Predict the 3D structure of the following.
Amino acid sequence: MKILVIEDTVTSATVVCGWLTGMGLTALHAANGEAGLEMFGSERPDLILLDIIMPGMDGFEVARHIRAQEKDNWTPIIFLTARADEKDLQRAIEAGGDDYIIKPVSEIVLKAKINAVYRMAQMRDALCQVKSKLEKANRELQRLSSIDGLTGIANRRCFDEVLLREWRRCSRSSSPLSLLMLDVDLFKLFNDHYGHQMGDECLKIVAHTLVETTQRPNDMVTRYGGEEFATILPETDAGGALAVAEAMRAGIEGLRIDHAWSSVMQAVTISVGVACVIPPRDGEAGIPALIKAADDALYRAKEGGRNQVKMSQGVIRVAGPGMANIGVLPPRL
Ligand SMILES: [Mg+2]
């Protein structure tokens, strides 16, 4: 353990350093505040004994400089003071000191105080380490809580958060926001025929194919639940959304994953419903209407024979006071 003694009175410093060495500690001496700060930077001591009254920079100022330099670290400081003035002691603690010893220093008091202060410093270090581990674990939890365990893509919870965020963003910029609801066709039959493990594998492949089909960084594919996926396409008009939806449909069909019991074709396919709005200001209550519009379109895609894309039709009506009707943009195809 390395102790830095910042003390201008050489006789006193010599005595204290002698005791420290006798305790088996490494003693470093600086004869004034400036030299002390320099040694603090170069030697990184474990503890500092700091005289208050020194020519030039006094002990209070040295302590303040040290505390300003330290970010996550905290080197314990014990002030040495010839004065038993209570105001000085208060200033010493306020400047960043941890304890004080009134001079002339006794060896027993010095030893006891060093042990006590060092013990506190070690407990503080241990707490800091625990805190940093907890923060890391919390970040990991946060990440995991937004990811679907099976497919590794964003989950339903993440969908809700992102849709609200993008709704607000598009509302501010009066940009179109598109939503795709996608469903694996006749997935129950797939599970019945090939088993749930193959069903899981199928969902993973579908999920990653959908993710690969999106191109913009803010596009987000999420697992909405079961074999249903939702894709949020910010700043995308109906024409753009239809193009993405069709690329997804074709991409899944192109995988040619066997689906012997499907009445659509002998491969896994998806149906897609598309809805698009320019979110009105203060119109967050319209979010369920957007989801419902995409869902209704998905339903019609299934009714129409599956493995196809349908656009939401008509006007998405938002109930509630002060709510505007949200128009569906016509596709630009
Ligand atoms: Mg002095």
Notes: Residues 8-9, 51, 53-54 surround magnesium ion (CB under 6 Å).
